[in-house]
């Protein structure tokens, strides 16, 4: 960081060279066959992230500048899949399918933000203007090959294929935020325009089960385009009525137009809608120990750009993965009531999630194929209560503990599946300890326990996660040495069951959340140097690319 007179500069560079391992186990009960599929997924990556920022105070009331972000990633992945197929009257598999996929991905992300901050008076009235552009490109290639061995009668078949996808996403956005504090209330208003264009150029070949492989891999070309335009306006106000009562209200309107086009199918799908998103927050302090608060909000959850890509990739001839060009965003209404008494907070809540999308495995009874696809598949209603207790009576120990219990019901849409209605409960505790008087030796212990749960069509089994951290502060606390461990006992496994198209599925997934990290951080230079961190105007769109 550099800060002198009217000019402020900031720069950061981060490089990460690492890897991860995922373990997937699926058990599918077809009417005449039982499938056990295990996938071992390994990925190695080299990531570089750089941020450069500048801001200049042209006058006492006008500051402008820019922020540039560049991310690059070079990832190579290997996925080995083994499926064993059983007849119910026999304990030995009659068919074994072995597949290997080697993937290479080279995503690049570049983003430029131009900002202006104009102060209108000394009371805090100001205008913020953000102009943003980003470009995201990714070349993804996935060749695969394998064998299918049937034991009775003995027969060996082969398969191979490749899938290449060149994706490019461009986004332009402009955002204006106006803050208007007055003696009566604090108001804010603004608007945003966002234009996104995504293009996918796909080449693919899938041999299916054959006796002789084709080494040439003759590929079929396809193109997929997705355009999204969003116009939004909002207004909100905050009013402190007296020492006990405070109110905040807001309203956002969004108009959205999307168009997706598949070249091979010569099919275009247009979607247009306008939605209102109200919010309200009311707070009442009965006395110094008791506070009541009610809030309501409506929000939208959009699919990321990869989930909208209908690109079809094969893991084996019987297992495929694809996105969905007609995937729609879903909407969530949240109602919450809080009561806080000293260090104890009670929350009652109710949520409605409409037209939720998720990845679902669609089994086909005739072929025993499973198609993993993103779909809008259910509505969820949830009612719950949570208790949070904070313990801080000892100067060397601070503890925050939460117990949450809720009941949910689901209704499927365009899917023949058994819904998972029932209770969900989890407990979390986070504890900070000062191990010496100067408070330079710190320790943290956190523990999460997911007892049982239901979500849509999935019944979720229990899991736990334990994390530890030790930090030592030196040289006037400018030097920080941190040793951190997450999921110490490797118990953070996602296990669930579901029934789709009459096929029972039981899954056990581990996403390599166990990690040990040693970090050394040293701050040098003047402690007075400080460059204001700013948010860009396209945070939501950036997140949908994974950046």
UniProtKB/TrEMBL annotation:
It holds the Pfam family OMP_b-brl_3. Residues 119-522 form the Outer membrane protein beta-barrel domain. GO terms for cellular component: cell outer membrane. It comes from the Bacteria. InterPro entries: Beta-barrel_TonB_sf (IPR036942), OMP_b-brl_3 (IPR041700). Keywords: Cell outer membrane, Membrane. It is found in: Cell outer membrane. This is Outer membrane beta-barrel family protein. It comes from Chryseobacterium muglaense.
């Amino acid at each position: 960081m550099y800060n002198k007179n009217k000019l402020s500069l900031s720069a950061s560079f981060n490089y990460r060279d690492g890897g991860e391992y995922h373990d997937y186990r699926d058990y599918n009960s077809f009417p005449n066959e039982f499938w056990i599929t295990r996938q071992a997924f390994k990925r190695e990556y080299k990531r570089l992230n750089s941020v450069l920022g500048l801001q200049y105070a042209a006058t006492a009331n006008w500051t402008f500048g820019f922020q540039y972000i560049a991310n690059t990633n070079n990832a190579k992945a290997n996925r080995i899949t083994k499926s064993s197929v059983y007849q119910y009257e026999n304990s030995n598999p009659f068919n074994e399918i072995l597949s290997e996929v080697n993937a290479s991905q080279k995503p690049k992300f570049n983003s430029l933000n131009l900002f202006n901050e104009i102060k209108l008076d000394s009371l805090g009235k100001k205008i913020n203007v953000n102009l943003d552009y980003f470009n995201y490109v990714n070349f993804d290639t996935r060749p695969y090959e394998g064998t299918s061995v049937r034991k009775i009668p003995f027969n060996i078949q082969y398969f191979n294929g490749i899938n290449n996808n060149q994706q490019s996403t461009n986004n332009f956005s402009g955002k204006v935020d106006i803050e208007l504090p007055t003696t009566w209330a604090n108001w804010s208003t603004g608007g945003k325009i966002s234009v996104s264009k995504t293009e996918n150029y796909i080449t693919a070949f899938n041999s299916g089960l054959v006796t002789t492989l084709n080494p040439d891999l003759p590929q079929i070309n396809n193109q997929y385009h997705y355009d999204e335009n969003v116009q939004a306006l909002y207004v909100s106000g905050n009013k402190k009525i007296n020492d006990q009562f405070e109110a905040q209200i807001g309203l956002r309107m969004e108009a959205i137009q999307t168009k997706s086009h598949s070249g091979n199918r010569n099919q275009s799908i247009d979607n247009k809608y306008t939605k209102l998103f109200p919010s309200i927050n009311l707070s009442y302090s009965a006395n110094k120990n008791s506070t009541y608060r009610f809030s309501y909000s409506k929000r939208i959850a959009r699919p990321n750009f990869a989930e909208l890509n209908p690109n079809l990739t094969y893991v084996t001839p019987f297992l495929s993965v694809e996105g969905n060009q007609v995937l729609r965003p879903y909407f969530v209404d949240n109602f919450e009531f809080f009561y806080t008494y000293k260090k104890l907070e009670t929350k009652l809540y109710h949520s409605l999630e409409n037209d939720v999308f998720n990845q679902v495995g669609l089994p086909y009874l005739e072929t025993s194929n499973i198609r993993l696809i993103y779909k809008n598949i259910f509505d969820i209603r949830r009612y719950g209560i949570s208790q949070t207790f904070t313990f801080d009576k000892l100067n060397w120990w601070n503890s925050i503990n939460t117990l949450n219990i809720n009941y949910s019901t689901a209704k499927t849409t365009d899917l023949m599946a058994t819904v998972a209605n029932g209770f969900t409960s989890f407990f979390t505790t986070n504890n900070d300890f000062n191990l010496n008087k100067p408070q330079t030796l710190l320790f943290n212990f956190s523990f999460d326990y997911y007892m049982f749960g239901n979500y849509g069509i999935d019944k979720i089994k229990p899991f736990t996660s334990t994390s530890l951290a030790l930090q030592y502060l030196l040289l006037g606390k400018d030097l920080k040495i941190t040793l951190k461990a997450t999921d110490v006992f490797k118990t953070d496994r996602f296990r669930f069951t579901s029934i789709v198209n009459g096929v029972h599925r039981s899954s056990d997934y581990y996403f390599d959340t166990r990690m040990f990290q040693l970090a050394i951080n040293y701050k040098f230079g003047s402690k007075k140097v400080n460059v204001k961190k700013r948010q860009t105007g396209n945070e939501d769109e950036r997140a949908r690319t994974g950046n």
